[in-house]
């Protein structure tokens, strides 16, 4: 199985940093919408693919626009929600990184499936500020869940800090902050 990490399109929370980090539930900008639509030609999807999005509006919008008109399976999973990188233990989740709970996800993004083996606290707590040991536990369980989907390619629409944290976990080496992706970038990894 190949996992391809895809960064969400440009979000409203990146407009006037750091003030815009205080936005709650930011979506995509017009430019971000165009970036998401461009994925349809850059990374075309088929029924043999799965797209899994983080439970934030900007990632779900990116995935929804990209998946439009395809038969790719669509999921949302809290184990690829926003994650600060590098981890700081004095950090709290910013309003722009607050995730949707299952009821709201079902109401707003009903075309995405939710895994049924995720405990309620993970939907509420997320992975943003959890210690590395707990993140590694969830990363291991998430990768195993992805493998059970039996897809050739699994695309993860997520955030740059989350991508960097998973790259460190999967590759077993430190990742520099400068190695993070630009808007709507992607990186493939075989697992």
UniProtKB/TrEMBL annotation:
<dbReference type="InterPro" id="IPR029033">
    <property type="entry name" value="His_PPase_superfam"/>
</dbReference>
<dbReference type="InterPro" id="IPR050275">
    <property type="entry name" value="PGM_Phosphatase"/>
</dbReference>
<protein>
    <submittedName>
        <fullName>Histidine phosphatase family protein</fullName>
    </submittedName>
</protein>
<dbReference type="InterPro" id="IPR013078">
    <property type="entry name" value="His_Pase_superF_clade-1"/>
</dbReference>
<dbReference type="GO" id="GO:0005737">
    <property type="term" value="C:cytoplasm"/>
</dbReference>
<dbReference type="Pfam" id="PF00300">
    <property type="entry name" value="His_Phos_1"/>
</dbReference>
<dbReference type="GO" id="GO:0016791">
    <property type="term" value="F:phosphatase activity"/>
</dbReference>
